[in-house]
Task: structure prediction
Amino acid sequence: MIFQCLLSLSVMLASGILVRVVFVRHRTKKNEWLAILTTDLSLSVEDVIHIYAIRWDIEVFFKCNKSLLRLQKEFQGRSCE
Result:
């Protein structure tokens, strides 16, 4: 996947946590963009985009499988406990 990074900046949140925000142009809709946020400031912009792309593939995989197996309601997690 090839993404065009529009801007990357570091921001201090109100809670005092320093984060990096990477703004990426949408692959097919050139007038739309995506903001990716990370707390790992040691990552390069390319790494942040690559990790997000891999994570997104995993999310789509699980969503499709839940839909195909009709598990939408049976396995919804409501808390981390």
